[in-house]
Design goal:
Helix content of chain B: 40-55%
Strand content of chain A: 5-15%
Oligomer: heterodimer
Structural class of chain A: alpha+beta
Largest sheet of chain B: 4 strands, parallel
Number of strands of chain A: 2
Strand content of chain B: 5-15%
Radius of gyration of chain B: 20 Å
Distance between the termini of chain B: 19 Å
Chain lengths: ~80, ~200
């Protein structure tokens, strides 16, 4: 079995699912980072960098930074 | 809100609730504002706005005209203050605390502050434009501005200010504070409820 860090494994898992199904999105606080800011975008990749690099491949429509409103954006999750 | 409610029950204490602009979009804040208003609680809500919630610049996530008007929509008097001006902050705090003590209930103070260092030790701060910190340190350093104001008003001359700065910059002070803390007795088991319930 390939040896990798948890961070890298989670990042791979997210990428695989997003490639497999174009309706899969990832959403959260600072998951790319830099919304509204004048500096670098996706410098962050979330507090633990598990979403780092997804922005470049999938764009802001599917890699969605949110305000810090957990109880609100949990309700944004849904299926068509 | 608990401390404010306790203060309302027989003391002239005022609760001061500090948060950052990161809390601007938390429902709990607006639930608290509503409670503070309808129960007329002696509380000063303070939002310290440094412009960033980790890597998110607050020009994006805060809908509407801003924090001041949000509090005002609950009927809570609110004011925006330049945090680099210590005298303006003191005046706003004094006014809000006075209102709370005289039974007029909650106030909200939104203090704009510069951000001289990152959110945490690992913060690369690359989401910020280059030169922003240097510009803030130059133009929005509350110590520099305070010094200039004090000198301009003639309260202290430059030599006296230098002397104060030299005294507080002595490293032994900091070391001594650490030493005192390390050697301090463990807190009394009776203290965890202090300021949780009304304490006289």
């Amino acid at each position: 079995m390939e040896r990798k860090t948890f961070v890298s494994a989670i990042n791979d898992g997210l990428r695989m699912e997003m490639r497999r199904d174009p309706t899969v999105v990832v959403m959260g606080e600072d998951i790319a980072g830099g919304m509204g800011a004048k500096g670098e975008q996706d410098a962050w990749g979330g507090a633990f960098a598990v979403t780092k690099g997804l922005l470049g491949e999938f764009g802001r429509r599917r890699v969605i930074d949110t305000p810090i409103s957990e109880t609100g954006y949990l309700g944004m999750v849904g299926e068509q | 809100m608990g401390t404010a409610t306790a203060s309302d029950l027989g003391t002239d204490s005022v609760a001061v609730a500090m948060s950052g602009d990161c809390a601007a979009n938390q429902g709990a804040l607006y639930g608290s504002m509503n409670l503070a208003r309808i129960f007329n609680l002696p509380v000063v809500l303070v939002t310290e706005d440094n412009g960033y919630a980790e890597t998110t610049a607050n020009s994006w996530p805060i809908a509407g005209p801003g924090m001041v008007s949000r509090a005002q929509s609950f009927g809570i008097p609110a004011v925006g203050v330049d945090g680099a001006d210590v005298f303006a902050v003191e005046a706003a705090a004094r006014h809000a605390i006075g209102r709370a003590r005289s039974g007029e209930g909650p106030s909200h103070i939104v203090i704009d502050v510069p951000m001289f260092c990152g959110h945490d030790e690992g913060d690369t701060e690359t989401c910020r434009p280059r030169g922003e910190v240097a510009q803030q340190r130059r133009d929005h350093d509350c110590l520099k501005i305070c010094r200039a104001r004090v000198a301009a008003a003639g309260w202290l001359d430059a030599q006296a200010i230098d002397q104060v700065e030299a005294e507080v910059e002595v490293e032994e002070w900091v070391e001594a504070a650490f030493e005192r803390t390390r050697n301090a007795p463990e807190p009394d088991l009776a203290t965890p409820t202090t300021n949780v319930f009304v304490s006289q």
